Amino acid sequence: MNDDIVRVFDTTLRDGEQAARINLNTGEKVQIARQLEKLNVDIIEAGFPASSPGDFDAVRQVAAEVRGPVIAGLARTKEEDITAAGNALASAARFRIHTFIATSPIHMEYKLKMTPAEVLKEVESAVRLAASITSDVEFSSEDASRSDIDFLAEVYALAIECGARTLNIPDTVGYAMPNEFGEFCSNIIKRVGRDGVIWSVHCHNDLGLGVANTLAAVRAGARQVECTINGLGERAGNASMEEIVMGLRTRFDHFGADTRIDTTKFFSTSKLVSHLTGVPVQPNKAVVGINAFAHEAGIHQHGVLCNRATYEIMTPESVGSPGTDLHLGKHSGKHAFGERVEQLGYHLTSDQLVEAFEYFKTLCDKKKDVSDGDIEAFLMDRIIQATPVRQYELMDYAVTIGSGGKPTASITLSHKNQDITEAAVGNGPVDAAYRAILRILNFEPELTEFKIRATSEQADAVGEAHVILRYKDIRAQGRGASTDIIEATIRAYIEAVNRLYSAAAAREVAI
Question: Could you tell me the residue range of the domain that residue 347 belongs to?
């Protein structure tokens, strides 16, 4: 065990996806997992297999297709959870079962309704079962930072005895302070020992201290960090991978530890995750925000021109932030286009690349300059399909404004090899289009979120629309992109409808 190396356990696909309004399908999870593999993460927590058939399938697909990192699946201490995780991960080159139970007094009393003795029995049975399936077992004490340290030491010692080789200390609700958490972790490691096991931390950001607490734990001896791209996660999110990794690398003199991460892939990975989840990266986000290496103040600009190190403690190149802006256009070839797609963090099959290149050429005929944002938008809309079977396809649309100023939209959708056309009047062109679509559908979903953005600052930028629909207890997101913003909003709505059908079928809910 190299004590200078900190293992990176990415949970973007599990804890990150649990963030409100994020719903990744299997294809999108595989795209992110492939990029995480290029990033050289050590462990990918692909999901929670027992939580739903869709999550089971996503974990199974990631395990089958991503061969470099260890693939982990989360499981409660329930037998059915651990069995489901083992089945979902069976095809992986290397896999880990990650089981957990809460150990804080408030969780045991009010959530679990269990005594400490009952929790210990759960730990023993769960870890032994997981260890009978794989030698790579991780155990987590949920809400560890608010747990009694004596009881916690007993729990971890039992987990080791039963076969756990990675022990995780979560600050589940972001309650800890860095100095306090570092000392807490140090005390646990000293009490329980570290021979043959790796100590890990999983910190949330409720007080904005997720990264600080994680780094404090590394100083205390933790050699695995659990984190997400862009800091996604429940409530205020998880500790951000890019911030942890760059903190260790930039201040190796302070921590004496580093990771195996290829940091030059951070910028493209961040953008990919942002596009697939629909969650924008704030401009001033450390490491990967668009302003992370921007200098406006005259004094700062002067300093940077003299020597970049005056105001940049890391270079844009070190995290893959673009140093040059190369334009692609109608004279560009498929090879150059493929290189750009790869740089953006997307991984296409040869057939998908041919199809994407055709769309790219069509787009070049409509606008002079095609930006990276334009490319990402149509890749998401046209190439990375949201559902394997699409119930509805947009065939044609038209929007007109009558003499009274009320827009009318006519929509033609293909459904089961039949074209259906309906028209409707609305308060605006998008409202009219959506009303026309609802006349075609045999159900009426609720529109809960609607966003439009331009993919660049150019006047002829592609418009990208993002919507979230809800039907019964199912939520689905849809994206659409086009040089015509009305078409983009229509495509986004239809995409969300198709996802609702897919999710409903998986849950055996009638639409």
Answer: 334-383
Is 245 contained in some domain? yes
- CA separation for the pair 96, 81 (Å, rounded): 13
Query: What CA–CA distance (Å, rounded) separates 364 from 383?
Result: 17
Strand order in 463-471's β-sheet?
A: 446-454, 463-471, 474-482
pLDDT digits 0-9 by tens, 353-390: 999 999 888 888 887 678 787 888 888 777 875 455 68
For residue 133, what are its two tokens?
Answer: 């399936």
Closest CA to 103 of 126, 122, 130, 85: 122
Provide Rg for the chain, Cα atoms.
25
In a domain, 352, yes or no: yes
Specify the number of domains making up the chain.
Answer: 3
Residue 13 has pLDDT above 70, yes or no: yes
Q: Identify the residue whose tokens are 């500790």.
A: 239
Question: Residue 348: CB partners within 8 Å, gap ≥ 6?
Answer: 338, 341, 356, 379, 383
> What's 155's domain CATH number?
3.20.20.70
Q: 20 by DSSP, 3-state: which?
A: coil
What's the CA gap between 103 and 126, in Å, rounded? 15
Same domain, 227 and 367: no
Whether 426 is covered by a domain: the verdict is: yes
Distance, CA of 285 to chain centre = 16
pTM of the model: 0.79
Q: Could you read off the pLDDT of 146-201 as tens digits, one per residue? A: 999 999 999 999 999 999 999 999 999 999 999 999 999 999 999 998 889 999 99
Polymer length of the chain? 511
